[in-house]
Amino acid sequence: MVLLQPFRGGLGGLISPRNSRPDLTRKSGIASKVNMVKRLTRSAPFQIAVAWLLARYMQLCAATTRWEYRGRDHIDALTERGDGIVAAFWHSRIALSFMAWPRSAPQKPAMLISRSKEGDFIARFARHLDIATVRGSSRNRRKDKAKGGVAAFRDMDRWVDDGNCMGLTIDGPRGPRQRATMGALRLAKATGAPIMIFSWSVTNKHVAKSWDRFILPLPFGRGVVVWGESIVVPVDASVQEMERLRLVLEDRLNAITLEADRACGGPISEPEPLPDTAGAVS
Q1: What's the confidence (pLDDT) of residue 139?
Q2: Is residue 6 pLDDT above 50, yes or no?
Q3: Alpha helix (H) ranges present in the chain?
Q4: Are 197 and 236 contacting, i.e. CB atoms less than 8 angstroms apart?
Q5: 210, 90 in Cβ contact below 8 A?
Q6: Is the peptide bond prior to 267 cis by the omega test (within 30 degrees of 0)?
Q7: CA 190, 191, 192 angle in degrees (round to 5)?
Q8: What is the mean pLDDT of residues 83-95?
Q9: Which of 67, 105, 108, 277 has the fewest CB atoms within 10 Å distance of its CB?
């Protein structure tokens, strides 16, 4: 039977006990399942297992791809010295970035990774590929993020000074895409280490519609790794010189990324357009 029951707000509503209760039960069941899936995917055992599987998958893609190497003399000149190196690449090229580091190099590779939940997963993934990690600012919002950034920079400085390689995605973690930030330049200035740049692409891939146009490689294709001319930052570089070098870094990395994409038949990954300042008031 359909009953007319009063609403708290003074309105009336038609409520069917037979129909409403199953609907509420069904919605409650769906919400419960969604929460269960969220708890599962965020759990450490699940992330450990998926990170291991993803690392093995990337190794499979790397092993079944026919690789071409361009600009190898640039990376060889740096690794043969045995000194510290700062490596710079775009966020979209994280997946097979390990292909740009020679296994015979004396320097040990590491990556800067945030202390977010996503960062926890990426850190586990990196360790399965024998890549060390330096964690960024704290995920605890009550803590001063600047302090976390200072601690991370100190750890990176020490890692490079010890004669290792520190890798940074210089447009991460959230863009703008293929626009260089100052992180790698500041680390190179502090340590005196050169900045090594590289990019890669493959013919078999899925390009995500994310902010960075992330590349997920697929097995059994052709691939290209391109190293570019390294950049040295003077220890006394001025603000103006740092900005000039930032543009040089951005342009060179975009140039070798374009070369890699073209060699693999596209699609071409374009830098995010700069804001239109034509109408800005000075």
Answers
A1: 47
A2: no
A3: 17-42, 44-64, 72-79, 117-128, 145-161, 183-191, 239-263
A4: no
A5: no
A6: yes
A7: 100
A8: 97
A9: 277
For tokens 């296994």, the residue is 103
Task: State the pLDDT confidence band at 25, using cuts at 50, 70 and 90.
Answer: low
Short-list 76, 94, 105, CA closest to 200: 94
Domain extents in the chain: 44-263
**What tens digit of pLDDT does each residue of 34-85 get?**
776 667 677 788 889 999 999 999 999 999 999 999 999 999 999 999 999 9
What's the Cα-to-Cα distance from 99 to each of 83, 141, 153, rounded to whole Å?
Answer: 20, 35, 25
**Cα 33 to Cα 20, 39, 42, 97, distances in angstroms:** 20, 10, 14, 36
The encoded tokens of residue 164 equal 């290792």
Q: What pLDDT score was predicted for residue 3?
A: 41
- Write 149-156 long-range contacts (CB < 8 A, 24+): 152/112, 153/186, 153/187, 153/190, 156/110, 156/112, 156/187
Q: Which two tokens stand for residue 42?
A: 């965020």
Q: Which two tokens stand for residue 39?
A: 């708890």
**Per-residue pLDDT reduced to its tens digit, 218-247:** 999 999 999 999 999 999 999 999 999 999
Name the superfamily (CATH) of residues 44-263: Glycerol-3-phosphate (1)-acyltransferase (3.40.1130.10)
Q: Are 225 and 70 in contact (CB under 8 A)?
A: yes
Percent of residues in the chain assigned helix, strand, coil, to nearest 5: 45, 20, 35
Q: Are 239 and 182 in contact (CB under 8 A)?
A: no
SS3 197: strand
Q: What is the model's pLDDT at position 104? A: 93
* Whole-number average pLDDT of the chain: 86
